[in-house]
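Budget justification, computational time. The allocation requested in the original proposal was used primarily to generate structure tokens for proteins on the priority list. As evidence of use, we reproduce two of the resulting records. The first is shown immediately below.
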Amino acid sequence: MPPVIRIVEGDLLDQNVDVIVNAWNRNIIPWRLLLPQGISGAIKRRGGYEPFREIAKYGVIPLGGAVHTTAGKLPFRGIIHVAGINMFWFATEYSIRRSVRSALALAKEKNYCSVGFPLIGAGTGGVSKQKALDMIREEIELSDFEGEAVIVKFKKIQNNTHNAGKQL
């Protein structure tokens, strides 16, 4: 059975999936020395530091490789961190496609039924959002993962409750 693919706009951390994918680096620079930004920054703010303490134990991750950690305080069963950028902080077609394949293989190995993907390589990596989306979707379609893959195009949701009742 081929995977079910959904493409949504929103926040990766708000998805109803078993596991999320964190577009990480090769794990060469210690996590505590990196500025919290993008998905990793959101994970640190909302989920705590435990997943990053765990990832440090893996050492250098091959380009396109994937490692699994707990989800910290997040409601997921785990986080799959992929090395989606090279030593120069750029993503390539190879690093994106290999990251998706590695993440799906790990999700299958851990018996996850649903995986949430960000647009790997489209942030710090410098790849266009559309190109990243196309490559991720193609790799999911080619995979033998039989669950649901949710590709999340980040969109900040405005919370206007603080303006409720005020005239603007």
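The second record produced under the same allocation is shown here.
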Amino acid sequence: MIEPRNARTKDKVERTKLEGLEVHPPGTWGDIVDERIVMGHGAGGRKMHRLISKVFLKHFAGPALRKLADGAVLGRFPGTLVMTTDSYVVQPLFFPGGDIGKLAVCGTINDLAVMGAEPRFISLAFVIREGLEVLKLEAICRSIGAACRKAGVQVVTGDTKVIERGENDELYVNTTGIGSLLPRAKLGPERVKPGDAILINGPVGEHEAAIAVARGAYRFKGKAESDCAALNGLILPLLAQPGVRLMRDPTRGGLATTINEFAEATGLGFIVDEAALVISRHVRGVADLLGLDPLYMANEGKVVVVADRKTEPRLLAKMHKHQFGRQAASIGEVVKKPKGVWLKTRLGSLRPLIMLEGEQLPRIC
């Protein structure tokens, strides 16, 4: 489960992520790949244009991005537009199961999908600390490109800024995502009714547990791996089923905070069954050692669905067929009273689950 960390053991996460990058011959872009980012890379001159063409365009260029205009002309496409924006400041940049690039793309896609939208376009803005190895930046961009291709979205515009050298915080990423609302998506808190079921597509707390282990500050190691994943392929087919009322991805604040948001928006009660929750032994180990509650630990590949109880079997069957829904479960129900959020313990009693106050672990996404 969780083992003491040898003080001499170096974190191999970043090195593993960087392995396999193409090595260019001397006199070409290879001379720059081994450099670190300098202020000139954000100054708008030749250095910046080489960085754009040899790193950014190499990994996620499309017709709109290749024009290198100040914006993107997206053209016409069906449906009502849905837009989301987010910033990513996770430390470390690389962690088991992902990196800041994959996290930014998947987080943006998931925010659109839980709104009932098909994700289509993403903008990316990088704020880079002077001194970041270009090799690391290229690994992150390669990860972004792979995540976008897998999810079927395009990076259409972006921006790069370089700030002064500092001790940490090598890179921040800001994204904006645009999608088209599916006509069949009828989601909203006003649709939730007493008797509805609460579903989730798998174990909770995996992302925060992975970040805790990857930082190495707590002198333990374990097999915790982030659940970072784009869920549009799982979520959008669920919307074809009748009775889906509301969706949300439980990121910061975890499952308990998301359910509290549901309760506030609907004015109803939500009871979560402790016995039905899936929590891996690795997450439990990290939580026990650090004094965390898995119900408040962040996820980056989970979706909470509130649906008509009659639709529950079909929704679970669909989830179980998808790679990111194999451990999907029905974890509770909506009630008229008592209002608020309650955990039904294994002993059968109810205890309140309040919204997260403060933070459990900072810089997790």
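A brief technical remark on that second record: The domain at 189-352 is CATH 3.90.650.10 (Phosphoribosyl-aminoimidazole Synthetase; Chain A, domain 2).
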